[in-house]
């Protein structure tokens, strides 16, 4: 396993699903992990369960003050961050014509504002510390393809590619790398919730949604797993040069090939 000994890693949305799996993998690889999530209790409980000196902090990634406070506390208690995984996210399934402006803005705030605010805070610490770092944004296969009823999600996930490319360019002189992981469907609470929602919108059974919508374009009709994504995040965190920056890695059973 790749070693992250002595590294400080902050993972947002780390109290559930993909973020939690990444936080776990980083801790087992030797990093001190900050479990940042919107609910303080969930963040602390997860940090405790992960062990290895993980720290749980409450951070709503859409709130500039909470993001700044969380990064300041991290620097105070553990040191400047070496690795950021901007992962917090939600999904709202709705035809575009029925989508409220409030829901559009909420989605962009969590996925885009959250990525900007956390990446800016991480970059400032990485540049000041002089040791470089790895910024990983959680994109999606939807950073490259579109699906019905996911307008703000698809727009935001496409936007993350642009943000990562700018961070890669501005960060290069400071050895700050930025990449996007683009998972296919992973069975987390975010996905379990949308299976019945999509079934309703599309007039399909839940089995049909899984087979004919979610996994239809994969090479083997299989879900991506938490382990698949955690391993990719480990690889990107440990990769030590600017040779791999500004990229997106699709981990989706061939759903989209670039
Ligand atoms: P999840 O629902 O299991 O976990 C999301 C976490 O984000 C939760 O702990 C939640 O509390 C937290 N969160 C939500 N809003 C927040 C906020 N404002 N501030 C801080 N934390 C907040 O979902 P998941 O499936 O693990 O998704 C994680 C990321 O992976 C998301 O960005 C999602 O878009 C992306 N993704 C998921 C899949 C999938 O199939 N599950 C596929 C591609 C991309």
Automatic annotation (TrEMBL):
Lineage, broadest ranks: Bacteria, Pseudomonadati, Pseudomonadota, Gammaproteobacteria, Lysobacterales
Pfam families to which the protein is assigned, alphabetical: adh_short
InterPro entries in the cross-refs: NAD(P)-bd_dom_sf, Sc_DH/Rdtase_CS, SDR, SDR_fam
PROSITE patterns (UniProt xref): ADH_SHORT
UniProt name for this protein: 3-hydroxybutyrate dehydrogenase
Family, as annotated: Belongs to the short-chain dehydrogenases/reductases (SDR) family.
